[in-house]
Write a structure and sequence with these properties.
Elements: H1 3-12, H2 19-29, H3 43-50, E1 62-65, E2 71-76, E3 82-90, E4 93-97, E5 101-103, H4 112-116, E6 118-121, H5 124-133, E7 142-145, H6 155-166, E8 178-182, H7 186-195, E9 199-203, H8 209-215, H9 218-221, H10 224-231, E10 242-248, H11 256-265, E11 272-277, H12 291-303, E12 307-310
Parallel strand pairs: 4-7, 7-8, 8-9, 9-10, 10-11, 11-12
Antiparallel strand pairs: 1-2, 2-3, 3-4, 5-6
């Protein structure tokens, strides 16, 4: 709950107004696991709160650790669905890749989460629990909403999560520590840009509309050119960062023609481009580009004035890398 909602709770329970701030402090700063831990609230009032509420924390059902140190956590949701969350260590950084949905309805051809289908939106509690209940919770430096699901398809719960993470009564994180990744769901994207200062990553994967539609059905509803037009209405020279995610497929989107058209599409935007190796998934004919092609693509964009990098692949051996998250098979084992 937000502080405003906690104020409603204490009012309904007949507690003093300042109890709302005490509860928020226990939940979000002191990371209490139960109402019983809130010792500056009287025993009678704690018992009263416990009749109708709980903190909402629960531990992961399972986890796997990669050879590179990446850890993939499995969480059960409140209605017994399953989601995956990935912790990525990198020198002084510790980034948590957070899920926003069970599965995904967008059905991108190259993504295991999309192959799973859509099984429901996560609540704010279920999103926050991933952040608070991994073993590294108190050491996290960054959060990326790049896990299962399209975050903007669950914008109401996502926005509430962002509010709590950045609020003084919550984690008090700077929005600069948070990145939201989206395919470009335009109505909610505009809302996000107007209401949040968190970083933004757009999954683009090809600058050619017809080709993008063949692997990303969302292109038919929200063409990438319209997404770019919307992005041009905002100032990207400040603290908020704009990046484009580009998974590279061999002989599909990795030619010089693609790099030229991508540079033309993004011309004038203050942004960076992250090239990502495709991680093979079952029953998909796409193959990853060679390193030589990826480096050529990168070098061309850098010459055109873009900051373009090849992202290191992490957690592939435990199916935790980009596009590999899925709980479709796991649900029968837990």
């Amino acid at each position: 709950m937000t502080l405003h909602e906690l104020k409603d709770v204490v009012s309904e329970c007949g507690l003093p107004k300042f109890a709302a701030k005490q509860i928020a402090d226990w939940i979000y700063k002191k990371r209490a696991l139960s109402i019983d831990e809130m010792t500056n609230i009287s025993l009678a009032n704690r018992q009263l709160l416990s009749q109708n509420y709980d903190v909402g924390r629960y531990v992961p059902s399972d986890f796997q650790k990669s050879e590179d140190g990446t850890i993939k956590y499995l969480f059960k949701t409140e209605n017994d669905k399953l989601i995956e969350t990935v912790m990525i260590p990198d020198k002084e950084r510790m980034t948590l890749c957070v899920s926003s949905q069970v599965g995904c309805k967008l059905n991108c051809q190259f993504c295991m989460t999309g192959k799973q289908g859509f099984n429901g939106n996560l609540t704010t509690n279920e999103i926050l629990n991933q952040i608070y209940s991994v073993q590294e919770a108190e050491k996290l430096t960054n959060i990326v909403f790049m896990g299962m699901g399209e975050p903007l398809d669950n914008y109401r719960e996502l926005k509430k999560t962002l509010d709590i993470i950045t609020a003084d009564y919550g984690l008090a994180w700077s929005p600069k520590r948070i990145t939201l990744s989206t395919t470009g769901v335009i109505p909610k994207l505009k809302q996000f840009l107007d209401e949040s200062s968190a970083h933004l990553a757009i999954s683009i994967h090809t600058p050619i509309s017809d080709q993008r539609a063949s692997i990303m059905p969302v292109e038919k509803a929200y063409p990438i050119e319209e997404v770019i037009d919307l992005l041009r209405q905002y100032d990207w020279r400040g603290q908020r960062r704009l990046s484009f995610e580009y998974i590279m497929f061999d002989n599909f989107n990795d030619t010089r023609e693609h790099s030229i058209k991508l540079a033309q599409l993004l011309r004038g935007l203050d942004c960076r481009v992250n090239l990502i190796r495709f991680h093979a998934i079952p029953n998909v004919d796409l193959k990853t580009s060679t390193l030589e092609k990826m480096e050529s693509f990168r070098d061309y964009l850098n010459k055109k004035g873009f900051l373009c990098t090849i992202r290191s692949s992490r957690g592939e051996d435990i199916s935790a890398a980009c596009g590999m998250l899925s709980t479709e098979k796991t649900k029968n084992k837990i």
